[in-house]
Amino acid sequence: MAQQQSLRDFLPSDSEPSERYRVEVLVETEVGPQGISHRVGPDRRLLPWGQVECALVAEVGEPEGVRTVVFDLVIERKPGECLVCRFDADPTEDARGVAVSIRRHLAPEFIAPSLHELADEGISTRRYPDLETLAEATLAQLGLATNLLFSS
Q1: Whose CA is closest to 124, among 61, 56, 59?
Q2: Are 89 and 6 spatial neighbours (Cβ–Cβ below 8 Å)?
Q3: pLDDT of 72
Q4: What is the DSSP string of the chain?
Q5: What does the alpha-carbon distance between residue 117 and residue 122 come to, in Å, rounded to a whole number?
Q6: Which range among 16-20, 44-48, 119-123 shows the weakest confidence by mean pLDDT?
Q7: What region, left, alpha or beta, does residue 28 occupy, with left being phi > 0 and alpha being psi -120 to 50 degrees?
Q8: Contact criterion met (CB below 8 Å) for 31 and 101
């Protein structure tokens, strides 16, 4: 059985986040009708659905090792870069439930095929060994990559 850990386990400890794929990690998330509630310090904040431009999902980690399902919500796009709000879930029915909830609250044009697949089939067909590879692939999928080595 595969081990499950937080997405922080996949972050390189000695490197800065990508300058073109900026990530804000959301902590203690709850999907609701108004948006994604999350903790910032001692307070709860809301990321409203109206700020989400695109919702994507991918499984990150080794198939037989530590892995997690990463949800990236694109909230800002500029030429060659984007800002995403990220949270994760265990690669179980929990992740499928989150995908179903997100799909329920966003218009279809804001949902990537990967999220539909997780909601429908219970598995993510986008799989990457680490967060850096996920970032590069997502930039390419969004048409923001300067170097199109990866495809969606």
Answers
A1: 59
A2: no
A3: 97
A4: ---B--GGGGS-TTSPPPSSEEEEE-EEEEE-SSEEEEEETTEEEEEEGGG-SEEEEEEEE-TTS-EEEEEEEEEEEETTEEEEEEEEE-TTHHHHHHHHHHHHHS-GGGB-HHHHHHHHHSS-S-EESSHHHHHHHHHHHTT--SS-----
A5: 7
A6: 16-20
A7: left
A8: yes
- Which tokens hold the place of 79? 């030429």
Candidates 99, 105, 95, 151; CA nearest to 128 is: 151
Phi and psi based region of residue 129 (left: phi greater than 0; alpha: psi -120 to 50; beta: remaining)? alpha
Which residues make beta-bridge pairs with 111? 55
Q: What are the tokens at 66? A: 């530590």
pLDDT of 20 above 60: yes
User: Does position 14 have pLDDT exceeding 60, yes or no?
Assistant: no
Can you tell me the distance from the alpha carbon of 146 to that of 44, in angstroms, rounded to the nearest whole number? 36
> Could you report the per-residue pLDDT of 50-99, keeping only the tens digit for each?
999 999 999 999 878 888 999 999 999 988 889 999 999 988 889 999 99
